[in-house]
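Why does residue order matter? Because the sequence determines the fold. Keep that principle in mind as you read this record.
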Amino acid sequence: MLTVQDYAAIVSRLVVSILALWIAWRIWCFFKPRDRHTLRSVAILVLGDIGRSPRMMYHAESFLENDFFTDIIGYGDSPLIPSLLKARVRYIPQPPLCLRLLPFIISGPIKVVLQVLYIFIELFTIPNPPEFILVQNPPSIPTLAIVWAVARMRASKIIIDWHNLGYSILAMRFPRQGERHPLVRLAKWFERYFGRTAYAHLFVTEAMKDFLVKEWDLQGRKVVLHDRPPRRFHQSTPQDIHDLFAVKLHTAISSEPSLRKFLPKYDAPYSSAFTATNASSSDPTIKRGTPPPPSSVIDPIYSEVKAPFLRDDRPALLVSSTSWTPDEDFGILITALGEYNARASSASNKNLPKLMVILTGKGPLKKKYMSEVGELQKKWDWVRCVSMWLDAEDYPTLLGAADLGVSLHASSSNLDLPMKVVDMFGCALPVCALDFACLHELVKHEKNGLVFKDASELAQQLETLLAGFPNCPRLMELRSDLIPAADRPTSPSSRPPSGEFAEDVWESWDQNWARYVRPLILQDVRRNEISDK
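Structure:
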């Protein structure tokens, strides 16, 4: 005969079982696909500043051009490129400032929880479930897990754009243990588990694709999409260069004390340190401010036929884009510039020009390195460094105006490539790049640029390329290889027999994206159209 205790135990077990079944059912209802996605729609997630994520902005631009409803989710610290005005931009709120007052062991988890909450809200408030969710990796935590869960609930397809490996970046914080550190191991497991089964994977290099397919057995479609610049990246004309330096950057340059006696004399807006017109104070044929004849609609500056032209006495212009982070050893460039200054100062090297270096970008080490440069260049007569942040529309003009680019990018995984070099190549700007494992997929040594391993080698390359400036045959040879695909020969006899013609031709982002990504995102649409017929 059952006692009261037995009845109580049975009832309690029954209640627990029912409760467990109810919880399991609610979890299933939460994760099962509930909505049908909307064709031709995409949500692009960037756990970072959207304006400083050029590749993701170019993705959004391409989706818009293919008539996709496009939502972009990320932080809004920097302005976006103008072509994204048609996109629906959903900015993630910045974590409260009060978190900075707390120790990292407390503020870190709170920040992650807030990020998870914000991203979930933004993805779920998109009115109709997107057909695709394109996510940038890294960062991997928490974005990959969030996207994995949301995609299951909203029947969306995940596309992961593999820029690098998140755990390899984290390993740099633990130089002693590296990938053996427990947190790095956990991050690696997380990245592999939630990134393995996406609908499609885009890789910035062949090396990254080969590594992840072999080590992580990635599922889904796999495509290598090398970075390429959009159409607006091209070599600048003298008129473009004049507008940039005589007007847009005039205030920034004229207010820089180190440049006042370094640059040749100019009279903005009629001339700059790099360009001139025949409408200057020394030209008696034109009086500034005099209006043109009534029948003329030409600006009086250019009414005497001559448009802006490049000055022969201009300094050589070197550009380096940097994120000012530990994975870019800026000290290499500082040392190389010091050696260049010493060589240019010697009596035997009078054919070397003055060198103006413009550094673009933002990051944590900027103040440290610029302070170091400021002290060193007090003793330099031939080199000056300035740091600037340019708008999205002016940055391509600066690259197209430069004579040489420098990349200090050192890949944490040895599997990614520097986007800055891609932008420079789009502007037909040759590059000296710090060597690492897969750099050869982008920079062809002695063909479209030079590869260096240390500061001394970089200094030697600067001397070799800039000798005789502005007439630099070696520099022009490198620049000539960066010809747009439309201008390359297409006859069968001109193509190399290896079949690598498509890889060697420098295509624009639009051409490259249409070749490799467009078939992925329109595949289901074509299937539906065929089945309807």
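The chain has three domains: 31-224, 238-289+298-483, 486-532.
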